[in-house]
Amino acid sequence: MTQTFIPGKDAALEDSIARFQQKLSDLGFQIEEASWLNPVPNVWSVHIRDKECALCFTNGKGATKKAALASALGEYFERLSTNYFFADFWLGETIANGPFVHYPNEKWFPLTENDDVPEGLLDDRLRAFYDPENELTGSMLIDLQSGNEDRGICGLPFTRQSDNQTVYIPMNIIGNLYVSNGMSAGNTRNEARVQGLSEVFERYVKNRIIAESISLPEIPADVLARYPAVVEAIETLEAEGFPIFAYDGSLGGQYPVICVVLFNPANGTCFASFGAHPDFGVALERTVTELLQGRGLKDLDVFTPPTFDDEEVAEHTNLETHFIDSSGLISWDLFKQDADYPFVDWNFSGTTEEEFATLMAIFKKEDKEVYIADYEHLGVYACRIIVPGMSDIYPAEDLWLANNSMGSHLRETILSLPGSEWEKEDYLNLIEQLDEEGFDDFTRVRELLVWRPGRITVGTPCVSVN
């Protein structure tokens, strides 16, 4: 069998695909390749899902069909290992009171009488970051999946990389502030960790560039020419009428980040894609394949025009939109000829072990602590990486202003309504309570309950993999 090795991976694509598919089959999953896209040469993307549980799906991208499939399967293990497929749902009383909710090594911290955050959770640095004004209470940190106040706060163990000490971080904080950022799976520990750290840099630098309206230097043509497959993809897009601009997003060689912008002259809109990896060529390829992941050429008319309103661009809601689907606003300043940083022909590549050390050195230089949770219970290495102050998708104040478990105390009441004999006044009182507690009028009932309607058979892999 042909063996295909690509930079950044510690195994041949064929071996990765065969291993991941076999592991998923052994776990009881029936994975199907639901859709493929190859809109331009050297850009592939695939959507895979479990036949029995449509909630369990991932997308993959790559310069070849095999690379895209390996990417999707790796992401599937990433999300299985971190329980992310069901991160937005209450899992019910049986799981909430079972031997464990998330992992066997989780630790529960009972609520205190004065509702302080219990000792043993977080370290001093994390407490100062998440709760600088001492506004956080223990009851705010009940995890959404269990909703079990009687059991207390569920803390997951992370290894603090500066001294290899174990720190317990509430699942509530992980789910509210970090969502899927910093999660990764791979052929080896170092490969996956490099990918997870690269993702943290990608989104941190992307947010800085967008929020601060930073002007980036273009990548010179002679540098792009080193990567003919990428150039062919770009030239094909331009021949189809979409001007492409490739930028060095390293901010003067500090970070391994690339930015590629696609313009649609038909409606004056643009779309900025970002990618990161210690290897310049890998980062560039990822940025271009990300540009078209899940999109055909006919799907490139749904973005927004650049704007001169830098305040609107910097708003957190706009950055959140960029995190979700990259369709947010971009400042015209990004495209100024006079860039804020010089072009740097950077390259941090090496073995995956060397690349991990290089990326960790950048965090150390920034005085940022890195916390990593390792997961190998499914037979494939995966991790979740948290870098407070860099990998946060949502601000810490969301823990008390927009916590995802804010409606959990209403679950029993609302679920009992179909069989209740309430009077009109009772319903009015409930509406008044919802108003007083600040719930958005447009919040769906299922979102308030963090509940998935429809039939999911208990015992299917997507429910029982833990």
TrEMBL record:
This is Putative fatty acid binding protein. PROSITE patterns: YCAO. Residues 60-466 form the YcaO domain. It comes from the Bacteria. Pfam families: YcaO, YcaO_C. It comes from Escherichia coli.
